[in-house]
Design brief:
InterPro entries: RVT-Znf. Pfam families: zf-RVT (PF13966). There is one protein chain. The chain folds into two domains: 45 residues, no CATH class; 108 residues, no CATH class. Helices cover 44% and strands 0% of the residues.
Length: 198
């Protein structure tokens, strides 16, 4: 509930502290329409929540040392086992690119960069402000910034990349020329080109 959270007067308060009094008292006096909607949804979810004074008996047995401290290495191993692996994880993290570049491309592949579409979702921009300033596309998404905009397409053409018409950031890992360079080198080159892209 990001909009509702932005209206919190004490954003670092614990859940128990907020639920111990009326949730509405933890928010600013006037809420936006979207925040009111999210508040109504939260209140429906909280209708069945009962707090207890009993100690929390839950624990991640595999992730704690004998003294009770969190074993970060064990937690990391747990995160890497099972679950659904992102098909582009090795493309990013096994490359030889600098850490900052890897992190940017990881956000890009998850469409989490600050495109105007993302700012629209966060209610920072209006629909009228969410278009591309360069080509006039009505919605500037991560896909549009990297592949759809005429300026981006001319960049990829200049570096010799022929992209499919429906190129998307989520499928970026499949565009790297691994056969020509080797997997890790190809992903490194691709990541560095992306970081240097407009």
């Amino acid at each position: 509930m990001p909009v509702l959270f932005s209206h919190a007067t004490k954003p670092h308060a614990s859940t128990a502290a907020v639920l111990g009094k009326a949730v509405r008292e933890s928010l600013v006096t006037r809420l936006t329409v979207e925040a009111e909607r999210e508040l109504a949804h939260v209140m429906r979810l909280l209708a069945t929540v009962q707090l207890s004074d009993a100690p929390d008996s839950r624990s991640l047995v595999r992730c704690f040392k004998k003294g009770g401290d969190l074993a970060v290495g064990d937690l990391y191993s747990l995160l890497l086992t099972g679950g659904i692996a992102a098909p582009y994880a090795s493309f990013v993290w096994d490359s030889f690119a600098p850490s900052k570049a890897k992190f940017f491309v990881w956000l890009l592949l998850r469409a989490r960069i600050q495109s105007r579409a993302a700012l629209l979702r966060k209610h920072i921009l209006t629909a009228e402000e969410a278009g591309c300033d360069i080509c006039g596309e009505p919605l500037e998404t991560a896909d549009h910034i990297m592949f759809g905009c005429s300026f981006a397409r001319s960049f990829w053409s200049a570096v010799g990349w022929t992209l499919p018409e429906d190129a998307s950031v989520e499928s970026l890992h499949s565009y790297a020329a691994a056969d020509a360079f080797g997997k890790n080198t190809a992903s490194t080159m691709t990541i560095l080109e992306l970081v240097e892209a407009p």
